[in-house]
């Protein structure tokens, strides 16, 4: 009996995608197209009026937010409007001319009878998408434009770390003095006090050893050197770096809070270098108010007032230049203030109503409860630079009041000046006082006209480069070139969709240069694949085999080339700033989209057209 074994051969199907792969491709392209569409319609300059949800507005004030009322008031002043949109809590006044934004904002603030917050209304500079409502309802929005494309103001701030280092050294000196007093070490002398450290000379080497043990136990960030009776304390470099990082980060947070208080949307606040902060305010054309608030370092401190015969304490001048004797250390500083509102008092004088946090309220209650009938001074301090570029702190007593009863977490102060001064002080106190003085070292203003010109020129260059590339691919690669062109257009759609979809992504003028570069890199992917397909066809392979081999052999080369370029884009993004980051962002996203469309999308089309074509000596 013969057993016949039958060999079953399985023929592998070439160039065939599964239904789920086509579904992924189609869904991805549709989502990216919807995300890119709002950018096609663009944006309009607008003023955003937020009524809040606390119902603090009077009925008469709410009537002022009626669209017809707003339109009448603004057109009377020559403000050209496109339309007014409104929902339950927010009204958008869309202007026809972006140059009229500052004038329109001031007019609206006057309509509501205020120049700051205080009555529940906030007026902010904003932009509104021109896209159809159904697109915005889906959560899609236009690409955020950078300062060089939208226009606005840019500030570069320098954080003065020397005052922070000096303050830490002064605190160390106080702690050492307190330790020496407790240990009854007399005749100790301090010298060489600087931001880097200090030197203490004691009466004996044993005292120096005791002080060495105390400092090394309590202060890990300082290096101690003892030479007999002399003890030198210097700050470690690691401690300086940590302190600098913490200080700059705190100032960043405070700057963001101040800009929110100013009512400026879509602002960018970023660290630049070791101790600088870059602030970009798109859409802002009048930098005066922003400059005053951003560069200010005002803060309040509350002091116990001493008798002029007191040995301790310090003198601070008041408004008239008269010296007021106060305690060396304040009872409370501005860091405990969580809210401040300007208002008119019972006598019609401007005042600032202050609210403290729980710790600050307890400190104020403890002090005021034990000093009823005694005076307390409110001191205002700010930093500035003198003619020699040195940072100088100016202190001024704005009020001296007698404590009538125990104070809690809420109280009011007077003497801040005019109502505008009181409002500015309240704004700064709400946003927080800076942990280190800052100086505006650079200020740049870009008008909206120049921004629009940059957009026109940039996208004209992109259109020209894209058009020439499409023409070359169609002529040189014929039918394959048309597929490459479809993939290239899909790549542009995906890239714009990603830029609009990723939170924090901003398109800048160098970013448009990255888009132009992406056009060439995306086509390069298809060029490598098509040349491999041609080589395989010349070797006598069928069209189906040539397509399969061409994609398989070119993919590894494409991935290697794009991976190395992606490393460069990532380094540029994290080390660079501003325009450099804009270029790196579009470059990196372009690499991702070009690989997706060049390898995945173009092959899907080629598979559908010629994937099963087994003819030889075919020219496509």
> Over the alpha carbons, how many angstroms does the gyration radius reach?
34 Å
Summed up, the helix count is 17
Count of DSSP E strands? 23
Secondary-structure content class: alpha+beta
Q: What is the approximate shape?
A: flat
Range of strand content = 15-25%
The description of the largest β-sheet is: 4 strands, antiparallel
Overall pLDDT: 80
Numbering strands along the chain, what is their spatial order in the largest sheet? 2-3-1-4
First and last CA, distance: 55 Å
Structural features, described:
This protein is an alpha+beta fold. The chain is 49% helix and 23% strand. It is built from 17 helices and 23 strands. A hairpin with a 3-residue loop joins strand 2 (81-86) and strand 3. It is flat and about 110 Å long. The relative contact order is 0.11.
Key structural traits:
620 residues, disordered N terminus, 4-stranded antiparallel sheet, alpha+beta, flat, 49% helix
Quick rundown:
The protein is of the alpha+beta class and 620 residues long.
Secondary structure topology:
Blueprint: H1 19-41, E1 43-50, H2 59-63, H3 67-76, E2 81-86, E3 90-95, H4 101-111, E4 122-129, H5 133-137, E5 144-145, H6 147-150, E6 152-159, H7 161-182, E7 189-194, E8 197-201, H8 205-218, E9 222-227, E10 230-235, H9 237-262, E11 268-272, E12 276-282, H10 288-295, E13 299-304, E14 314-317, E15 323-326, E16 332-333, E17 337-344, E18 350-356, H11 358-370, E19 375-385, E20 391-402, E21 410-414, H12 419-431, E22 438-446, H13 448-476, H14 478-501, E23 506-507, H15 509-538, H16 543-575, H17 579-610
Parallel strand pairs: 5-23
Antiparallel strand pairs: 1-3, 1-4, 2-3, 6-12, 6-22, 7-8, 8-10, 9-10, 11-12, 13-16, 13-19, 14-15, 17-18, 18-21, 19-20
Helix pairs in contact: 1-14, 9-10, 9-12, 13-14, 13-15, 14-15, 14-17, 15-16, 15-17, 16-17
């Amino acid at each position: 009996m013969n057993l016949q074994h039958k060999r079953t051969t399985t023929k592998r199907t070439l160039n065939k995608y599964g239904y789920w792969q086509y579904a992924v491709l189609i869904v991805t392209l549709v989502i990216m197209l919807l995300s890119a569409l709002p950018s096609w319609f663009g944006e309009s300059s607008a003023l955003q009026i937020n009524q809040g949800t606390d119902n603090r507005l009077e009925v008469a004030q709410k009537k002022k937010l009626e669209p017809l009322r707003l339109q009448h008031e603004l057109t009377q002043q020559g403000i050209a409007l496109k339309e007014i949109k409104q929902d339950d809590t927010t009204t958008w006044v869309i202007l026809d001319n972006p140059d009229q934004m500052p004038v329109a904002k001031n007019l609206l603030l006057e309509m509501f009878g205020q120049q700051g917050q205080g009555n529940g209304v906030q007026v902010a500079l904003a932009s509104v998408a021109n896209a159809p409502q159904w697109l915005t309802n889906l959560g899609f929005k236009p690409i955020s434009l950078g300062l060089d494309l939208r226009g606005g103001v840019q500030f570069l701030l320098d954080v003065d770390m020397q005052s922070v280092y000096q303050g830490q050294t002064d605190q160390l000196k106080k702690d050492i003095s307190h330790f020496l007093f407790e240990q009854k070490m007399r005749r100790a002398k301090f010298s060489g006090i600087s931001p880097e450290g200090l030197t203490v000379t004691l009466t004996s080497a044993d005292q120096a050893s005791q002080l060495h043990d105390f400092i090394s136990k309590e202060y890990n960030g300082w290096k101690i050197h003892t030479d007999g009776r002399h003890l030198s304390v210097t700050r470690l470099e690691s401690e300086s770096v940590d302190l600098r990082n913490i200080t700059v980060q705190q100032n960043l947070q405070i700057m963001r809070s101040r800009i929110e208080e100013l009512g400026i949307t879509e602002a960018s606040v970023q660290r630049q270098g070791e101790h600088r902060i870059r602030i970009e305010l798109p859409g802002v054309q009048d930098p005066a108010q922003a400059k005053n608030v951003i560069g200010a370092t005002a803060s309040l401190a509350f002091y116990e007032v001493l008798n002029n015969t007191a040995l301790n304490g310090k003198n601070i001048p008041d408004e008239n230049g008269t010296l007021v004797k106060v305690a060396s250390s304040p009872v409370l500083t501005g860091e405990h203030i969580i809210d401040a509102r300007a208002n008119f008092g019972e006598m019609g004088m401007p005042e600032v109503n202050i609210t403290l946090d729980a710790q600050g309220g307890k400190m104020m209650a403890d002090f005021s409860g034990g000093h009823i009938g005694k005076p307390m001074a409110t001191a205002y301090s700010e930093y500035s630079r003198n003619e020699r570029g040195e940072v100088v702190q100016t202190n001024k007593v704005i009020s001296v009041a007698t404590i009538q009863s125990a104070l809690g977490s809420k109280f009011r102060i007077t003497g801040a000046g005019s109502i505008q001064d009181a409002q500015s002080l309240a704004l700064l106190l709400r946003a927080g006082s800076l942990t280190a003085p800052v100086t505006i070292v650079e200020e740049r203003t870009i008008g909206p006209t120049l921004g629009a010109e940059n957009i026109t020129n940039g996208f004209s260059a992109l259109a020209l480069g894209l058009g020439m590339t499409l023409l070359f691919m169609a002529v040189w690669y014929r039918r394959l070139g048309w597929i490459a062109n479809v993939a290239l257009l899909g790549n542009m759609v995906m890239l714009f969709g990603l830029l609009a979809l990723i939170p924090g992504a901003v398109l800048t003028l160098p970013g448009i240069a990255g888009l132009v570069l992406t056009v060439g890199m995306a086509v390069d992917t298809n060029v490598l694949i098509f040349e491999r397909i041609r080589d395989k066809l010349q070797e006598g392979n069928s069209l189906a085999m040539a397509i399969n081999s061409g994609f398989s052999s070119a993919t590894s080369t494409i991935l290697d080339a794009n991976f190395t370029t992606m490393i460069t884009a990532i380094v540029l993004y994290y080390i660079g700033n501003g325009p450099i980051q804009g270029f790196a962002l579009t470059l990196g996203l372009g690499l991702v989209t070009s690989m997706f469309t060049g390898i995945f999308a173009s092959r899907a089309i080629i598979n559908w057209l010629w994937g099963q074509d087994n003819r030889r000596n075919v020219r496509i």
